[in-house]
Specification:
about 130 residues, Four Helix Bundle (Hemerythrin (Met), subunit A)
């Protein structure tokens, strides 16, 4: 698949996950909202990393490459890296720690983080001429 098509496919997946997260939040499904908000960020990051020589496929690898290629060189503010890592951690709790409550406030924060993360990744993709 051409890199441009791959970027667009990941952006579409991200948009769908973000839309799902919003619907889940509106319907008080906070656990699933947290998970889908993370996946929106994950797919945005995968779109960003399409131009790397050896794109990662596992979540930890994607996080590490995001840091290596975009955060360390200061193409993206470190706060977005921290939000992404925290979203991953919160998603793991939401998906696997069934006794851990997922509160409305956390879901709302993850949703907002995903929206801001999306905006930042789109900015970088545009700057790089990939949109």
């Amino acid at each position: 698949m051409a890199k441009n098509q791959e970027v667009k496919a990941y952006l579409k997946l991200s948009d769908e996950a973000l839309e799902s997260a919003q619907l889940l939040y509106n319907n008080q499904k906070f656990r699933d909202c947290v998970s889908r908000a993370y996946y929106s960020m994950f797919y945005m990051t995968k779109a960003l990393l399409c131009n790397t020589e050896r794109p990662a496929h596992k979540h930890r690898g994607v996080i590490d490459q995001f840091n290596l290629y975009y955060v360390r060189p200061k193409k993206i503010d470190h706060k977005f890296y921290l939000r992404y890592v925290k979203a991953f951690e919160d998603r793991m709790i939401a998906d696997y720690q069934v006794l851990e409550p997922i509160l409305k406030e956390l879901a709302k924060q993850k949703l907002q983080d995903a929206i801001e993360f999306r905006r930042e990744i789109l900015r970088v993709l545009k700057e790089e001429g990939r949109l």
